Amino acid sequence: MRWIPAAPGATLGRFTVVYLHGQDGNLGDTVDALARLHRSGVNVLAFDYRGYGASQFARPSEAHWRQDTEWALEYLTGTRHVDAGAIVLDGTDLGANLALEVAAAHPELAGVVLDAPIEAPMNAIFNDARARMVPVRLLVSDRYDLDAAAAPLRVPLLWFEREVPAEEAGSTQEPEAYQRVAARKMLVWINPAGDVNKEAADAMGRWLDGLPVR
What we know:
Layout: E1 2-4, E2 16-20, H1 31-39, E3 43-46, H2 62-79, E4 87-92, H3 94-104, E5 111-115, H4 123-126, H5 136-139, H6 146-150, E6 157-162, H7 176-180, E7 185-190, H8 196-209
Parallel strand pairs: 2-3, 2-4, 4-5, 5-6, 6-7
Antiparallel strand pairs: 1-3
Helix pairs in contact: 1-8
């Protein structure tokens, strides 16, 4: 687990962001993401799920990821005495799917940030030809379902997506799960050829600054 306090005097230091990394790598591969969050002027709590990095060994699963995130929230509110209304979940890739799922269950949080979540992540397993040989949908409980978590979300949402090449510009439409969100929301397209971390940090700073005070 890594705790990174906001810089002294940071205007957004009232917020604490729980960073949820994706399915590849571990906490050691998140330096750029954590630097981006620190640049935004917030406190940051980041950790490895069980089975990743130097954390306790366990088979990675949606249930374990969810439990680990719930423990992180309990640590912040119970040990560090951070008000839940000042906590933001921020996830990348499959970690973004998790962030949306947890945020939907915690309307007391300040908000949630999704960085390129994965649409229908389990299709790679369910649509595999070998899956026809076994009842895979019964054997695999993981879903990371964006659509299911989007509709009940009640906290502000910031969603990052990557811009597509100019010749495919017509496909830069709102993701389906984003459209299902009824809560306050903002979609930001990031240019992969630009300064991704700066663009994301600036957008997040503006979004956090506009969050309602709880």
